[in-house]
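Q: Structure tokens for this one, please.
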Amino acid sequence: MPFPLPPPLAGTGAVPPPRNRDLTALLTAYEQVMGWTVAVEGLRVPGTDAADTLRRRPDSMVSVVCIGFEALQLPARPGGPPVPVLELDDRLYCGDLVVPSFVTGSGARTLLVRPDTAEEVSRVRGWPMIGVGGELVVPPSPGMRWEIPPWDPARRAPLAFPDAALVARDSPPPP
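A: Here is the predicted structure, written as tokens:
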């Protein structure tokens, strides 16, 4: 059974992800659309069991293994908003460059990018990365929310992850 999705954002074709409080829909999207195996506090569990666990223990961390993508983690500025990625917010939905990303309560932002493209950007920009095979903590972990989910709801398929160099090309240097 497909999970319910909100309508697309006007003129973009992109939709916001299921809300964090709709745990079953979000975790089902991870499994059915992304093909991710979900872990709660390090234990791999099916989506419905994960949702039940999170309802009982809402402060639990949810993670997935980076398969088919890498993650660049842009740290928060001390006492400020998330590190800006040049006009990234303006480009998130523009043209072919759609950058799946989520933010944390601290203001840090995580970008999901194509495999084998994050290491050079990580080295040059000083942004931590999680490579293929690494464990990535994701929403609905406490304080996290998707800005751009990594799936195309119209096709119910994963988005094509962008090359990290394209994302970082116009980004300001680290503080």
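A few notes: The mean pLDDT is 77. Residues 23-168 form one domain.
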